Amino acid sequence: VLFVNDSKATTVHALQAALSSFDRPIHLLAGGRYKGGDLRAAVGLIQRQVRSVTLFGESREIFVQAWEGIVPMHWLPNLEEAVVYAAGLAVPGDMVLLSPATSSFDLFANYAARGEAFIRAVEGLGDKGIGELRDSEK
Predict the structure, then answer these.
(1) Total structural domains in the chain?
(2) pLDDT of residue 134
(3) CATH number, residue 95
(4) How many Å apart are CA 24 and CA 6, to the nearest integer?
(5) Distance of alpha carbon 78 from its chain centroid, rounded?
(6) pTM above 0.85, yes or no
(7) What is the pLDDT of residues 78-104, one digit of tens each?
């Protein structure tokens, strides 16, 4: 399983770019403080590549309104729990992608702190199937 930190993706456009960059099944981690933008614009990419969406943070209602019935969705109160949940859904060859399409300010000081929390959560998975961790910041 590949884990990718794209915490800097704070807009719908950035989410679309991230989804377009990979050719493997994706378990998407999304959510935070909604900045605007049309989440429905990502529906085609969601249908084609995303196997599940695990939401965290305050904007879950907006994601549910945009993507309900398109992809299985689950909400957890924080990113750490969301990482564990999404990792449990992933099988070899899949990706767990943090590309939130929102700002981080509901739970974190900034996108970098959110990305660091993602990395810590992935590292905390231990031997639960981690294959590779990529950080878009490096």
Answers:
(1) 1
(2) 77
(3) 3.90.190.20
(4) 16
(5) 12
(6) yes
(7) 999 999 999 999 999 999 999 999 999
